[in-house]
Design brief:
CATH topology of the largest domain: Rossmann fold
Number of helices: 18
Helix content: 40-55%
Bound molecules: adenosine-5'-triphosphate, magnesium ion
CATH class of the largest domain: Alpha Beta
Length: about 450
């Protein structure tokens, strides 16, 4: 099935097809037919409208008429292939013109169907095109797996799930679509957000990071939208918000599940109208940016509980990326372990070359409630205490040996406290290693100074 790389909620796995057709009746019939065949359908009445809509989000397959006023289906094909070589387009024509058909295939059309449309043939054509695309995608992933592991924008993986995620990130990054990264704590959401920015046409512009948990609702609002002088007590001068600061680039809204309902409404307005108002000002300010959001909460459940707006959720979910917990992609553990050994060898100046095979067995059985972050912590600690050049079982913390039933893909297996404890410990260690210098500690932790300060506050570290 195609599109399996996006998260499964709300029929998100169904392929998206766009119909480009100037005749309203045929357009309607095609829409009905495709919807019934379980495709998600978008339609455009001209090639130029299609180009506009296609710049907004990735579409799996385009079904376009050849003869249309202004821009023909062939010209549309030419434009699209330049922008996204992987795009699949099937052309339809009432004039059975061999010349058009040949030209279409030469330009990279996936297939060509004649009008009046034989719907059974159309269905077969669409299935074949999507299957072929899916196979190409699978082949690429298999090739990469044969090489042992893949490195992608600072991320390391070998599992099928992560390789699909990488392929999807690569594709999604080219579009200005809002992205939503979900997954348990420590699964790599922030790395994904950074990759989306780095691989986008906006890579030379700024990436602004906002953590939605750490501020009181009113402060968060002025942090995001800015305010004018006198807007509230203490607002002694005009201030630019993070949205304005991110104009032209990307804003990363981390922990979006914590966004207060009042701010959710305002965010929706930003996404829909591409404008903001500073608090205390009636004047809209136009902003153009890419929004990437992340959360470890189950937003669909929050929508049902009424704590997250459904319209905002659907808007965010267009570019959904789900990161599986580490325990359900154990193929990644070995390459990740070697990756972290390399990193900490450098950082700690310890000549440790790798784990003993028995250590990898223990890692494969442990459920990793703190996911990749926890794995990194365990490896760093083991390298600090190990005496020889190999990480041995006795270098591991005792709780890794406790056997507990591994449940896949549901609630964390330990109280939340232990995740926080791990983070707190990591921060303390970074501070210690940096001789108490916070800027240096933030750099080591890969956090912004602001985020570190907030976390110090949260964990009561003086
Ligand atoms: N695939 C990966 N390859 C290499 N490092 C990874 C990978 N995934 C995560 N990490 C590392 O694990 C740590 C946690 O990742 P990250 O901060 O992106 O997680 P997160 O999902 O944002 O967590 P949280 O929900 O707690 O904010 C980071 O140090 C990151 O560099
Ligand atoms: Mg994070």
């Amino acid at each position: 099935m195609l599109g399996a790389e996006t998260s499964g909620a709300d029929g998100h796995d169904r392929p998206k097809v766009m119909v480009v057709e100037d005749d309203p009746d045929i357009r309607k019939i095609l829409e009905l037919f495709l919807t019934e065949k379980a495709f998600r359908v978008k339609s455009a009445e001209s090639a130029s409208q299609a180009l506009e809509m296609l710049a907004e989000e990735p579409i799996d397959l385009i079904l376009s008429d050849v003869r249309m006023p202004n821009m023909s289906g062939l010209d549309l094909l030419r434009h699209l292939k330049e922008r996204d070589p992987e795009i699949q387009l099937v052309l339809m024509s009432a004039y059975s013109s061999v010349k058009d058909a040949v030209e279409a295939i030469r330009l990279g059309a996936a297939d060509y169907v004649e009008k009046p449309i034989d719907f059974r043939r159309l269905e077969r054509v669409l299935q074949t095109v999507l299957e072929k695309r899916h196979l190409q995608h699978r082949t690429r992933i298999l090739e990469q797996r044969l090489q042992g592991c893949v490195t992608f924008e600072g991320m390391v993986a070998r599992s099928q799930q992560m390789l699909s995620v990488f392929a999807f990130i690569e594709r999604l990054a080219r579009y200005p679509t809002t992205a939503l990264v979900t997954g348990e704590s420590g699964t790599g959401k922030e790395l994904v957000a950074r990759a989306l920015h780095e691989l986008s046409p906006l890579r030379d512009r700024q990436l602004v990071i906002c953590n939605c948990t750490t501020l009181a609702p009113t402060l968060l609002e002025s942090e995001l939208f800015g305010h004018t002088r006198g807007a509230f007590t203490g607002a002694d001068r005009d201030r630019k918000g993070l949205f304005e600061a991110a104009h032209g680039g990307t804003i990363f809204l981390d922990e979006i599940g914590e966004l207060p309902v009042g701010v959710q409404v305002k965010l929706l307005r930003v996404l829909e109208n591409r404008e903001i108002k500073r608090i205390g000002s009636p004047d809209p300010i136009r902003i153009d940016l890419r929004v990437v959001a992340a959360t470890n909460r189950d937003l669909a459940a929050m929508v049902q509980a009424g704590t997250f707006r459904d319209d905002l959720y659907y808007r965010l979910n267009v570019g959904a990326i789900f990161l599986s917990p580490l325990r359900s992609r154990i193929d990644d553990i070995e390459p990740l372990t070697h990756h972290f050994v390399r990193i900490f060898r450098e950082k700690l100046g310890r000549n440790v070359t790798g784990p003993a095979p028995s250590v990898l067995d223990i890692f494969a059985r442990y459920p990793w409630p703190g996911n990749v972050r926890e794995l990194a912590n365990v490896i760093e600690r083991a390298m600090v205490v190990s005496k020889g050049s190999t990480i041995l079982p006795e270098n591991l913390p005792p709780h890794l040996f406790e056997t507990r039933p591994v449940t896949v893909g549901d609630a964390p297996l330990m109280p939340d406290l232990s995740l926080e404890a791990a983070e707190r410990e990591q921060i303390l260690r970074a501070l210690q290693a940096s001789g108490g210098k916070r800027v240096e500690a933030a750099r080591r932790l890969g956090l912004s100074r602001r985020t570190l300060y907030r976390k110090l506050d949260r964990y009561g570290i003086a």
